[in-house]
Amino acid sequence: MREMSEYAYRARGRDGRERCGVLQATSEAEVAAYIRARQCYVTSVVRCAPRKEKHWERRPAAKELAVFCRQFSFLIDAGVSFSSSLQVLRHQAGSRRWKTVLEEVERQIQAGTSLTGALSRQSAFFPPLLLGMVEAAEASGAMEAILGRLAIYFEKEHSLKQKMFSSLLYPALVLLMALALTFYMLLYVLPVFADLFGQMNLELPWLTRWLLQGSSWLRQEGIKLAGFVAAGLLGLRFWQGKNSWLRWRDRIVLTLPVWGEFWRKAVIAQYCRTLGTLLGSGLALLPALDLAQRTTSNRWFLERLQAVRRRVSEGETLTASFGASELFPPLVVQLVAVAEETGKLEAMLAKVADFYEADVEEAAVRLGVLLEPFVIVFLGLLVGTLVLAVMLPVFESVGAIGSFK
User: Fold this and answer.
1) Residues in CB range of 347: below 8 A, 6 or more apart
2) Is residue 378 in some structural domain?
3) pLDDT tens for residues 337-368?
4) Residue 187 sits in which domain range?
5) Residues 166, 43: one domain?
6) What is the pLDDT of residues 39-97, one digit of tens each?
7) Which of 24, 29, 30 shows the shortest CA–CA distance to 48?
8) Alpha carbons 125 and 292: distance in angstroms, whole number
């Protein structure tokens, strides 16, 4: 499988208007096929130089995009022009980067560029889904309705992520506190008792000796351990940019018990929601498949979704392509088959997304509830072991004094 790269393209539609943007693809031929599928003529396709994304260049959160699309839709519905709408949005933007991006988009529109072209020049900021749907909205003249669809899409994405995060937050915090308490006991509490036990010449139990040796090693070699962990994190960050590593990591995640099935359902829900939203906005199936696959962060899924698009472009039905991908459960494949026969693919994909989003939310809550007792038991065992290691020598010394009397 060839690696994905970014390609900057220029094209002209049948109306003569120039269109430009940036696409992720495996080759220039794939970009050209994507443009032709949208009934445009290719002017140029240039591969972009690879660059690493800085933390301040990351795309805005789903909640911010939902607010932007919702407010933009309201302004257009009120009869405000694109340029004036962007000016209003820029003045009330909360972050400096939003202000800068919207000011540049506004300047491009005032210079005669289409909204799609102006937004596409900020492709590092706006996601491909938004760019593709805005282009479809300009072609169909339904900008207000499609921006409303985008707002609903980003609101649902934000809501799902928040529910997943909230369900797993408490177990994660308890586990973090347990680890912090363990390091504090080993570094500051146990050394005090070690000196005390040494002055009393007590014969220490094996548990106490083992923990005191660990405490001594941690205090002596702690800097080396921190350096080793930092080097490991840096190495992991380096390998995260490699497609081979990402493919292997994402495949392993999907094979994990409980978590793998949970993540698979989340990806299916996001993909079906995206594809249904794109089709409902008037995009043809091939461009919609191209945009939908690029919203998926899992590389293992992405490769198979690219194969789905390729089969559809070769004449297969979406049902057959889904079935051959081995990604989608039989229920999804059967529902898509019914939707293709009845011509209600958009509505059926929305229902599939609703079903799996509800399933993921329920699974997230259930996973959080199941993890809580395990984390609390783990914390109790950890603290109990540390306390027992400290108190055992004391009890033995008291018992020895009592027997001596």
Assistant:
1) 276, 339
2) yes
3) 999 888 888 889 989 988 988 888 888 777 77
4) 159-405
5) no
6) 787 888 888 765 444 444 567 888 899 999 999 999 998 888 888 998 899 888 878 88
7) 24
8) 17
